[in-house]
Fold this sequence. Notes:
This protein has helices at about 5-15, 90-105, 120-125, 190-200, 220-235, 250-275, 295-305; strands at about 45-60, 65, 70, 70-85, 110-115, 135-145, 150-160, 170-175, 200-205, 240-245, 280-285, 305-310. The longest helix is centred in the C-terminal third of the chain and has 23 residues, at about 250-275. Helix 1 (about 5-15) runs antiparallel to helix 2. The protein contains seven helices and twelve strands.
Amino acid sequence: MKFSLARLVSVAVLLILSSPSSSQPRDTEGARDHPLVSRFPESVIIRSRSNDFDELLVPMAEAIGIGKFADSQRVEGKVTRLTYEMPKGHSTLEVLQSYRNALVRAGFEILYTCALDECGSHLYFQKLEKPFIIDKDHRFLAAADDLPQGRVYVTARVYTTARENPPVRAMIEIAEVDTLEEGLIQVDAKMMAQAIENTGHIAVYGIYFDTDAAAIKPGSAAALQEMSRLLNTKSDLMVYIVGHTDSTGALGHNMDLSQRRAQAVVDMLLSTYDVEATRLTAKGVGPYAPVASNRTEAGRAKNRRVELVER
């Protein structure tokens, strides 16, 4: 996943990237910082793991069991896990606040943060890290932001180990969510016609909107062009343009948002692609017709869609 230059620069400035000198401990072999979140000055990477497609459990409330939380979110996508060890003389509060400040100034929303006993048992939290570490004095935060290429989650768990005169460590996890919204199903006019003939409807995932907005983004032109080709080829086809949302947020708001998005598609087909107004009707059904579970980010992405339904 690629990130905008402005975002990369803002985070890099706020968390100053520093490479260990020859006299300092070095990163574990092959490890490197994530391009979105740089390290605390003079810290070193002691563990590093990255998977192109994995899942990340994002705690949103206190721990109530081993790997269980009063509220949490499981997200899927590219997941990077980095554990840093800090130079001596820094506290867990200082390190966590440094990450928090950098993320907030870069535009991230803090979803949850806690310290010490507020987090629930540290024994429950530390099971998130492998290999198992006996720790203390731990602090945690979870943050997220919608970048142009998708949603990104960052969690930071800062703690000291139980050994004598322990250094501060920070486990940083970054999930670049594979939203599946872009390019989930690439369909052309012929495929749309076949699907409508077989099932009476087709989901189109190539129409993009900003979060909580109804303005169509420029990258939607290809899908709109294929929709217009379908309607031009099938001159007798009358359709509902149906907007769908996930279940996040209030029902009334989602119903209104889905209607406005459906209407935006109708308006674009009328104004740009010269489709006859009598052949299109906008309908918004909000979260009432999911095609996947709303419990995961990938499922919610599938549910946020526009459909063509024959009428």
